[in-house]
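note to self: dont lose this again. the chain is below, predicted strucutre after it. 272 aa total, dont forget to put it in the shared folder this time
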Amino acid sequence: MADIDHGGAFAALLGTWEWLSPAERSLVRGFVLNKFRGDASLLEPAPTLLEQRTGVPVIGVVPYLEDLVLPEENAASLTERRPRTAWLEIAVVRLPHLANFDEFAALAAEPGVHLRWVTTPHELRASDLVILPGSKATEALFPGMCSMQPEAIVDMWYGPGPFRDLVENWPDVVWAGVATLRREARRTADTELLALVRRAEAHLDSVPQPEPDSEPELPFVCARLKIGDQLVRTLSTVMRFDSAVEVTASELRVELLFPADEASDAFFQSLR
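---
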């Protein structure tokens, strides 16, 4: 089967057939052209020529059907679906190692939603919502973390380890993390999350706590990273999505890390 909507379908079918071994060719009973727009009779003489070259007939032409909202085969085939009228514009960042890209098909199919895939900052252009999808690079960046249990992640971050030396203001950052865990545990009444809070608190017995009045739900936490002989100041913001109608977006948290000064910005730019 070949996608004729992108062009080159007959060449792709012939080229694939040429690469097959005689045993594999004997298994091919017919070719099918998918996503054809217009009158199929206009395809001639290409189907006849293909059959003459291969001995395999074109047994079907599947017309292009609008609004099927079927998942794409891979991220390279992602396209923008522009509705006639849209009241909500969503930009999804097309990461180099994008994972689970088909999760957004249902969102793009919603009436009044215009979902765009963006690759450069200027394409964001005042979108109502920007989504950072999951990345396949997580395991490459943090080997083993994807397979770690929550208890092990808490031990790694809150217990003795390299993060205490990497983050200059580690006590402030970890107690802010504990405050977030406490709020979520109270909100959800999740016993497993409450156990993680107690586990994190046990690691911090000897770490001075902030005053009770200094634990408001601040919109940001600033981490200062010691990388080599350089101090990299960052601004980490956490966005929340509430008042969802049909989806549990209130559970969604998106954390973004920004350079807090020009020197830190230059450091991050040097990593590009």
